[in-house]
Write a structure and sequence with these properties.
The protein is mainly α. It contains 21 helices and five strands. The chain is 67% helix and 6% strand. A hairpin with a 2-residue loop joins strand 4 and strand 5.
C-alpha cells in the first residue's frame, strides 16, 4: 500500500484515503476511519506536494498498524510500552515506540508551540490580526494531526478542542479576549508538559506526571461557547442593507482570508526557497565543531613540521597554503553554526511579562532591541534563567501599579526594555524599566536584617546599588 501511495499524485492519494475511510466506516473500524479523515483534512490544507506526501505516508503506516491488531493500539494509547531501538516503523511496532518518529514529533511540536506563544501575545493586543490567528490555528492543527498518527489521545483531544476555539475566531464567530488567550496558553502548557514527558521517556529517565486534561478541555469548551462573540446592532444591520450591492461586495472582500493559505503556490514556493533550512541534532553540530578543531590542530602541526621548511616545491607549498585557508574557513563555518540569534530568548520573555502583568495587576509592555545579535547556543541557554529572574524582579519590584504611575505623572503602562549589542569585543545585554528605581533605604534595611552590614554603617550609593 505504501509503494502505491508513494508513486501516486495528490489526487490519487486523496481518492485512496477517501476509499479507506468509506470502507472503514462500513466495516465499523472507527479508529481507521478517524485516521483517514484526519489525513484527508490535513492533505486539503497542506502547503506543498512534499508535505502532502509525508502526511499520507505517515497515515498509511498508522492505518496498517491499526489493522495489524487492537492490542498494539491499546498499548500505544496507554503509553505503557518500552521504546524500540529500531528506527523503522512496522505493523508489529506501535508508533509510540518508534524513537526517531517520536523525536521528530517532539522537535516539530516544540517549534510550533514557540511560535504560537508569541502570536497569542500579539492577538491579545490585536484581536483582529488574522495572520496571527492563522498561524496559531495551523500550529494546533498540525500538532493534532501528528498526535493522532502517533495515537497520543490526550494531546490530540486537547489540540482538537483548542483548534475548534481558534476556528471560531478565524471565522469571525468569536472575539479573542484575555480569557481566551489564557485558555489557549494553558493548552500550550499542557502540550509542552506532554512533550517533556515523552522526551524524558525517550532519554530513559523518570518522566514527569502526565497532566490532567478534563478541566482544561471543559475550560476550552466554555471559551468556545462563550460570551465574547461579536455583537451586531440593529442600526448597523439597517445601514448595511441600505448600502446595497456595493456594500455586499465590500463585506465579501473583507471576509476573504488573506493569510498565507490564500497565496498562490508560486509565491509560497518562492518564500520557501528563501527560508529553506534543515533541522540537525545539536550533538552532530558539536561533533562537527570538535572535528574542525582537530583538523586545525593537525594542519598546524603539518605547517610547523621541520620537514616542510626544507621543501622547495612551489606547487606543494601552494597546496599546503590552500589547505590552511580551507581549514580556517571550515572552522569559522563550524563555529558559526553554533551561533543563534538572541531574539528567540527575548521572545520567551513575552509570555512571562504577560502572565506577571495579569497576576500583579500591572500594565507592562516589553520592548526588545538587537534581537539579531548572535551568541553561542550554549550561552543563550545559560542566560535564560538569569534573564527571566531579572525581568521578574523588574515587574515585581521596579514597576508601579497603574494608579501609582498616573499619580507620578507617568503613563499607566510600564515598559521593560531588553537590549543586546556589541561593545569593545563583548556582547552586552541590558535589562531596563521605567519604574520607581531602586530604594536605597529598603536595600539597606534588608542588608542589615540579613547581617550583610551593621546598622549605622556608612555605605556609598555605588556600593548599595551594585
Amino acid at each position: 500500500m505504501q509503494m502505491v501511495l508513494g508513486s501516486a499524485d495528490g489526487a490519487a492519494r486523496m481518492r485512496l484515503l477517501k476509499g479507506i475511510r468509506t470502507e472503514a466506516a462500513a466495516a465499523g473500524h472507527a479508529e481507521v476511519e478517524r485516521a483517514a479523515a484526519d489525513t484527508i483534512d490535513a492533505l486539503e490544507k497542506a502547503e506543498d506536494a512534499s508535505a502532502g506526501a509525508a502526511l499520507a505516508s505517515q497515515a498509511i503506516v498508522r492505518i496498517q498498524q491499526l489493522l495489524g491488531g487492537s492490542s498494539a493500539a491499546a498499548t500505544s494509547r496507554e503509553f505503557n510500552c518500552e521504546f524500540s531501538d529500531s528506527t523503522e516503523a512496522s505493523p508489529a511496532v506501535p508508533l509510540c515506540q518508534d524513537r526517531e518518529l517520536l523525536g521528530d514529533f517532539i522537535l516539530e511540536s516544540r517549534d510550533h508551540l514557540a511560535q504560537l506563544e508569541v502570536q497569542m501575545i500579539t492577538l491579545e493586543k490585536e484581536p483582529g490580526n488574522t495572520e496571527a490567528i492563522h498561524t496559531v490555528f495551523r500550529a494546533f492543527h498540525t500538532i493534532k494531526g501528528l498526535a493522532g498518527f502517533l495515537d497520543l489521545a490526550d494531546m490530540r483531544e486537547v489540540a482538537h478542542e483548542t483548534e475548534t476555539l481558534l476556528g471560531q475566531a478565524r471565522e469571525g464567530e468569536l472575539t479573542i479576549t484575555a480569557d481566551a488567550v489564557d485558555a489557549v496558553l494553558a493548552s500550550a502548557d499542557f502540550l509542552q508538559a506532554w512533550l517533556n514527558h515523552l522526551d524524558e521517556r525517550l532519554a530513559g529517565r523518570a518522566a514527569e506526571q502526565i497532566p490532567e486534561k478534563l478541566r482544561l478541555i471543559e475550560r476550552l469548551r466554555g471559551a468556545a461557547r462563550g460570551a465574547n462573540r461579536p455583537q451586531v446592532s440593529a442600526a448597523a444591520i439597517q445601514v448595511a442593507e441600505e448600502q446595497g450591492d456595493s456594500g455586499d461586495r465590500r463585506r465579501d472582500e473583507s471576509a476573504v482570508w488573506s493569510g498565507p493559505e490564500r497565496r498562490s503556490g508560486n509565491e509560497r514556493r518562492g518564500e520557501n526557497a528563501e527560508t529553506r533550512c534543515v533541522k540537525v541534532d545539536t550533538a552532530k553540530l558539536d561533533s562537527l565543531v570538535d572535528m574542525a578543531g582537530e583538523l586545525v590542530i593537525a594542519q598546524t602541526m603539518v605547517r610547523h613540521n621541520p620537514a616542510v621548511a626544507t621543501l622547495h616545491s612551489p606547487g606543494l607549498l601552494h597546496c599546503l597554503a590552500q589547505v590552511a585557508r580551507i581549514t580556517g574557513d571550515l572552522q569559522k563555518a563550524a563555529m558559526a553554526m553554533r551561533m543563534v540569534p538572541i531574539g528567540g530568548l527575548f521572545q520567551r520573555m513575552n509570555r512571562l511579562v504577560r502572565d506577571l502583568g495579569r497576576k500583579t495587576g500591572k500594565q507592562v509592555e516589553l520592548e526588545t532591541f538587537g534581537a539579531d545579535t548572535e551568541l553561542d547556543r550554549n550561552v543563550v541557554e545559560e542566560l535564560a534563567d538569569p534573564l527571566m529572574h531579572m525581568v521578574r524582579n523588574a515587574i515585581d519590584h521596579g514597576l508601579e501599579t497603574p494608579e501609582e504611575r498616573r499619580a507620578a505623572g507617568k503613563p499607566s503602562a510600564g515598559h521593560i526594555r531588553l537590549r543586546a549589542f556589541h561593545q569593545a569585543g563583548h556582547i552586552v545585554i541590558e535589562v531596563a524599566d521605567d519604574g520607581r528605581g531602586l530604594d536605597r533605604g529598603r536595600i539597606l534595611e534588608k542588608a542589615c536584617r540579613t547581617g550583610l552590614i551593621s546598622e549605622g554603617q556608612n555605605i556609598s550609593d555605588d556600593a548599595v546599588l551594585t
